[in-house]
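Reminder to self: tokens first, then the designed residues, so the page reads top to bottom the way the pipeline ran.
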């Protein structure tokens, strides 16, 4: 399984910004399309954004389009999520994983917590 260590989560007010980072290990980084997922309390994991391994094309869940930006740095084996104009519904634990996994995936890392509140 691909392994990631996520960081950058914090408490932020609505309308604020923060950047999440994850570092991958144990796999050939440039072979995989990697994404950010989140889990709100009591809810399933959902995909937030993905970035392709071959052409850096991106996908965003509708609710974050225009607010979040995903990027990757192969030299640092890292994927980033720039979150702007955050909303309370963006709160949750954010995880990195290979794009395409679903809530049944059993390889989630420790994640990083984002709390958006006034």
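Designed residues (118 positions):
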């Amino acid at each position: 399984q691909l392994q990631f260590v996520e960081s950058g989560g914090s408490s932020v007010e609505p309308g604020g910004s923060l950047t999440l980072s994850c570092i991958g290990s144990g796999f050939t980084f440039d072979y995989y399309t990697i994404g950010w997922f989140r889990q709100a309390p009591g809810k399933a994991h959902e995909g937030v954004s993905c970035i392709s391994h071959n052409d850096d094309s991106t996908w965003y869940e509708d609710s974050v389009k225009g607010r979040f930006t995903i990027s990757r740095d192969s030299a640092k084996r890292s994927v980033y999520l720039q979150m702007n104009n955050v909303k309370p519904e963006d709160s949750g634990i954010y995880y990195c994983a290979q794009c395409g996994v679903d809530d049944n995936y059993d390889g989630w890392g420790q994640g990083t917590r984002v709390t958006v509140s006034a």
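Strands lie at 3-7, 11-12, 18-25, 34-39, 46-51, 58-60, 68-73, 78-83, 92-98, 112-116.
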